[in-house]
Write a structure and sequence with these properties.
Largest sheet: 4 strands, antiparallel
Radius of gyration: 16 Å
Order of helices and strands: EEEEEEH
Bound molecules: zinc ion
Mean pLDDT: 85
Number of domains: 2
Structural class: mainly beta
Low-confidence stretches: none
Shape: globular
Length: about 140
């Protein structure tokens, strides 16, 4: 399956537990390793979610693990690492947003966030391209909708 934003191959990632009882459980999640756009499928076959573009200060979750110092907030990079590439067991996304504008935020994560932001194509008006809610690609388990 390819990314609807940039055309790179998507990677399946572990599904997070719902953080609140009112949240719908997610069955599958795919993330693009290039632009980090993500797509989720819920337990209902037609329940597909493709979050739109978000600016860098509203896009990333604060990485959480016992081994990371809270003094230097890192962004969670979706594939079991921080955005700047730190990997260890138990590294997850926290429920809190991460902001590269914080004075103490990890600078390497901030650079990577800016690089990934630049990978989102812009439309003719110079806005980041809106994501389409079209039929799923061939080979996926999704029914047409
Ligand atoms: Zn992509
Ligand atoms: Zn970092």
């Amino acid at each position: 399956m390819t990314c609807d934003v940039c055309g790179h191959d998507l990677r399946s990632v572990p599904v997070p537990e719902p953080r609140a009882t009112w949240q719908l459980p997610v069955k599958e999640r795919w993330v693009c390793p290039w632009c980090h756009a993500w797509t989720e499928r819920g337990h209902h076959p037609r329940e597909v979610s493709r979050p739109q573009y978000r600016p860098v200060d509203m896009r990333w979750e604060w990485a959480d693990s016992e081994e990371l110092s809270e003094d230097v907030p890192h962004a969670y990079g979706h594939f079991g690492t921080t955005l700047c590439g730190i990997r260890h067991d138990g590294l997850t996304a926290s429920p809190y947003l991460w902001d590269p504008g914080w004075a103490h935020a990890c600078p390497a994560c901030g650079e990577m966030a800016a690089v990934i932001d630049g990978r989102w194509p812009e439309d003719a008006q110079g806005e980041k391209r809106k994501r389409l809610r079209t039929t799923p690609p061939p080979g996926s388990a999704w029914p047409p909708f």
